[in-house]
Amino acid sequence: METNDVPDDFPFGISAVVPGAQPKLCVIRRAGKYFADHEGVSRRERWLLCEDLASQLVIVAVKHGRGRPSSHEETLQCIRLAVARKDWVSTAELNWVISRLRQLLAW
To answer: CA 20 to 30 Å from 24, out of 13, 40, 66, 77?
Structure first.
């Protein structure tokens, strides 16, 4: 897969929140070097992580639906809250994951 395999609707950039009064520059360290450009390879890596997460959450959603008589939206909201608490992905990525999960489940 190439960088252009990333869907157009996948969020761009990495949002970083760094506390303090001094200006900050958020970078990624790769192969011992620091890069401020988060596009390309990093975006693809984040997309692969989010795609994998959405695929794994299909099982969770199906089990949740069997265990409780809840609507699809309630199930997705429970999953959204659980994943948000883990802080694995940014808010924009989480929105994409939930949207992708809805697609995978055909909800």
So the answer is: 40
Number of H helices, E strands in the chain: 3, 2
For residue 42, the Cα-to-chain-centroid distance in whole angstroms is: 13
Within 10 angstroms of residue 56's Cβ, the number of other Cβ atoms is 10
Write the pLDDT tens digit of every residue in 53-100: 999 999 999 998 787 767 899 999 999 999 999 988 989 999 999 999
Q: Other C-beta atoms within 10 Å of 18: how many?
A: 9
The amino acid at residue 81 is L
Q: What is the pTM of this model?
A: 0.73
How many other C-beta atoms can be found within 10 angstroms of the C-beta atom of residue 48?
13
Range of the domain at 15: 3-105
CA distance 6 to 46: 10
Token pair 């909800």 is at which residue?
107
Contact 97, 54 (CB under 8 A): yes
